[in-house]
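Sequence of Methionine--tRNA ligase (Bradyrhizobium arachidis).
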Amino acid sequence: MTKILITSALPYVNGVKHLGNLIGSLLPADVHARFRRQIGDEVLFICATDEHGTPAELAALKAGEEVGEFCARQHATQADIYRRFGLSFDHFGRTSSPENAALTQHFYRRLDAAGLIDERELRQVWSPVDQRFLADRYVVGTCPHCAYREARGDQCDGCGALLDPDELVAPRSALSGDTALEIRPTRHLFLRQSRLVETLRTWIDQRSGWPPFVVSTARSWLTAELRDRCITRDLTWGIPVPRAGFETKVFYVWFDAPIGYIAATQEWAAAAPGRDWQRWWWQADDVRYIQFLGKDNVPFHAVSFPATLLGSGEPWKTVDVIKGFHWLTYEGGKFSTSAQRGVFTDAALEELPADLWRWWLIANAPESADTDFSVRRFVADVNKDLADVFGNLANRIISFAHAAFEGRIPEGGEPSDLELELAAELDKRIVSLRRHHEDLEFRAAAAETRAIWSAANAYLQQAAPWTAIKSDRVRAAVATRTGLNLVRLSAVLAWSIIPELSERVLSAFGGDDVVPDWPLQPCRELFDRDAGSPVKKLAPIVAKIDPDKAAHLAKRFGTA
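Predicted 3D structure, token representation.
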């Protein structure tokens, strides 16, 4: 048994996430956690809402709520959506927890004692009306490049240009509208990453199994130009900085957020007796730690967070594999939370069962390049793979067993060359499928799963027990028994990707295992397993998305 620690990028708390966020880290992390549980590994799957920073304050202001109340409500909303999507977190915490505050301050003190914290003076925008320094996002004005009137002090959403607040035309406070803004000196703390370049380079050299673009991104940061990172902000919502003269400042969200993985594990351990968070994070040489991230998060997890852990001088567990993903695009453009463009997770669940979305996203995961989502492609793929192949496989043979064998797995007869050839093919395919899962190759895993379903359908088409029964009931019994066990096997192998649909199929065979075990000798089970046992009737496993529903989806999601 291997101990597997899994974390996904922390979803930000400022609103419901879209499908791009889901496939960018959360969903593949869940699929891998489920697979690892199936093969008997000890898994800890940790996540949390990322709750600090300027966007949370601005979203709360827009909603007319205190920021703490806003974050609590948004956390509950997101937790419910992820539960309905089948994400099997062992714990889903919050970076605003007392545990994260204490740990973040602990790391700061360790880094400071190691000479890796530097206090420096910066010049920043001050609002006389608000009586505070304004973070870049709190300054809005007209973009000097495209004249977009609502550009922020860090970026223009009109043309995408990166900006500094003093570049804006007619700048004003996003909080009060104050236009009498000033530039004043203020002091901030920096993590001296530049002193850790060689330590980080050696650490990265010792990693393996990272996608090439993740390795290249990490190495591109580890140059002589690696900048020290400012880890404090002039905000009111965040983790206080335990340093004289910094009473009005908090830690930068990108400093405290990754520490939230450890804090959430502490919360998990505190929730039940016998749990020990340290065996996962402290001197945990026997743990394999895998992070799932979108490509924009890679530099922080490949450089900045390891700098925090390694710089502390303490024996913290660092990541073994970073599985990075490219973007899921939307009808040729970008998903956007701020512009509400794309398919959002709450709306997706209102329209269709979670497993339909899960299947398409994993089968088209943006692993080596961006992937474009369209309603038309989604409908076509789901109808073909889930309704025509998987659903048809299950419903056809189970219905026949009820019609011909009183709803039981029939006994009698011996496998022919047809069954033995199928067994040899499936043995190879299941070995390949397991390897794809172990190697974090999600598209390939979905493709191999689909191929197994197709092989099962092809077998039933050729064996045709509904024809054989007219002249050879024993032969029909062999084909039906093999077909039913193929259905069970297909559901077990697909469980990590489409758990709800798989569990519905397995329930027909009396399966009530929380985690269906990965088959160790799968093909031996095809011919004789549970002969004589009853099989329950099933309603159609997957209903096809008809043209009217497809048109509705296109209209709702802005692609009609």
